[in-house]
Amino acid sequence: MSEEPVDTATAILVSAAVLLRERTFDDISYRALADEVGISERTIYRQYPTRAHLLAALSDWIERTYFPLPPFVTVSEYCAAVHERFRAFDASPAYAYVGARASAISPTLDGAGPSYLTRAIEALLDVAAPTLNRRDRRRVAASLRYFSSAMFWARLRTGFDLDAAEICDAFDRSVGPVLARLPEATWVEQ
Description:
Blueprint: H1 8-20, H2 30-37, H3 41-47, H4 51-66, H5 75-91, H6 93-104, H7 116-128, H8 134-147, H9 150-160, H10 164-180
């Protein structure tokens, strides 16, 4: 059985993830990464011209590989998916911190639109609260997106030394009021 070939950009990201097990993102040089992948440092610069590009791509790859969000259609499924996500963050904190850090910088990738999670939350609101006006829909989506983010998890983990269960509780207490403020007529009967 032969292994599927991996493109250079993905090989760089895989190697960066391996190095994250031993050091922080800031301690991973392009030289060390090139040595790990077995390519020239110049090739890495061609793929990721700046560390911000590398961080954004690595965060996206880690998100898809290690923290895929379970599908959700209802608000309760969304909450359960976020709880599972926070438990996964606790199991791989070095990877979760990369996601938190990447979300704190400006988007650097050309054509980078809303993330998968943002699109999924917006789709949830389109179905669950179809009469919600555009302004409120954007506000609710932004709130739900932040409260389910690696950044929210990281701030509570490092700032308050909370574990996944406690962060899930904080998430529930944060999201509840956001959803409760919406008019009752907004929601579709589930």
